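Let us practice reading a record.
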Amino acid sequence: MRSDAPLIVQSDKTLLLDVHNSEFESCRNALIAFSELIKAPEHIHTYCISAISLFNASSCGFDSSYILNTLEKYSKYDIPSSVRAYIQDFSSRYGKIILTEKPSDEEHLSLEVKDPQLYEVLHSSKALKKLLLPSEDPFTFNIKKFDRGNVKIELIKRGYPVDDRIPLVKSEAVPITLKTELREYQENAVSSILGDGGRGSGYGVLVMPCGSGKTVVGMKIMQELSTRTLILCPNIISARQWIRELVTKTDVDISLIGEYSGERKEIKPITVCTYQVLTHRADKEGSYPNMKAILEGQWGLVIYDEVHMLPAPVFRITAEMQAVYRVGLTATLIREDGLESDVFSLVGPKRFDIPWTDLQEKGWIARAYCVEVKVPLPHETMVPYAVATKREKHKIACMNKDKLDVVETLLIRHKGEKILIIAQYLDQIKVLSKRFDFPVITGSTPNSVRDRLYQAFRDQEVQTLIVSKVANFAIDLPDASVAIELSGTFGSRQEEAQRLGRLLRPKKNPCFFYSVVSKMTVEEECSANRQKFLAEQGYTYKVMEI
């Protein structure tokens, strides 16, 4: 306990870190190992210790003694006893259940439970009877090999992660060499996944800001493993972007790269596939016909791009592909459905995270200024708004016609710059298109037209694009420097982060992200929630009122 220490540990398991303390940087670097950044405004950063953050730490070799010693080293006050007990409890749970091979059995794996009392609890669970089979070894279950992922999910739901010590399989060799040099933090990201190549390495999630080079990191991992690789992407545009990057930045022959999408069904040594095609089925009760073909690909590495978007049905594939190297790439692990523990179990723990503002300060991503522009509702919509349902209120507020005057003002202010105008509602997009006559990209725009317009934007032939939410994810538009957001998906923090991410590719001049909001409406509340993640990363919103 030191009066000049930078950290306060609170009984609700949050950690308050003084940005202006001389030990700020060393303390922050230590906290990253076992806690999650919650808020990062100007003066005090807030972290939180959770079960998942402790499991992440334990999987990387940081035990409760290390965590408590770190907190004691930097804490201004005594650590609350409840927090101390929580850390000791959840840290100790990793390693109590160990999954290993059964050398003499080709169909089963061995699940050893180190705690006899926990073994009895699991043994008596009716819900686990079909997964945890009897074994001749004491305090041990047999599990079928294809149940490996399902067992992990079920046990982490009960608060006990599985320590999977089964060696991973590379599969057929597919040589590939990256032509570009990596930055130091990118090399660190690769090392965090591959480690020394021993047990417990080769899988996990990398959390890196948009524009920081996640794709290059993924390709470097492909080079290090040089094995059959499946790359899963959120949409066809991002899939083709991966293919384009592989062709231009590696020496791999294009004949070895396949596209598995709604338009093509190619299985090659390196196959890029969309989440949509995997989750497609004829009806709600039907099977997923494309999953079988993908599962039979004999992959050695699976890369999950935008892993925070991983659809629940794709967890089935992930559950069955536990013997292969697995990497999740994302700018934020926020999942609005709360399935972070499934990502932990099936893809792996978070291995690497770096603050957005750190990369901004070093010039690796663009400096961004966020502005919230507040616009009054037109007088004629006030009564319809007052009597509407909450969902209707949201649409009325988002569709505020006076927002178009704001767009016009901002277009004049940023004349000559590359601008994205983003809207949620198609009616609003039609009005924008009619008034400003800019090219439009929505979900109904054919992929060939999308590709052509995105390329025209990159080639300076088009200065401004009007886009729907289809442009939220994995679209590489490096020269975009202004985004004007007129409407969004209620309070989606994930969406706000991705939209700002369209601007963060490194550039000399700063970029501007405008969120135009109807004043004194439910849209203000939704906007505040959307902004939360960016505020946690250290971005502040300047407010302008019209």
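A brief commentary: The two ends are 50 Å apart (CA to CA).
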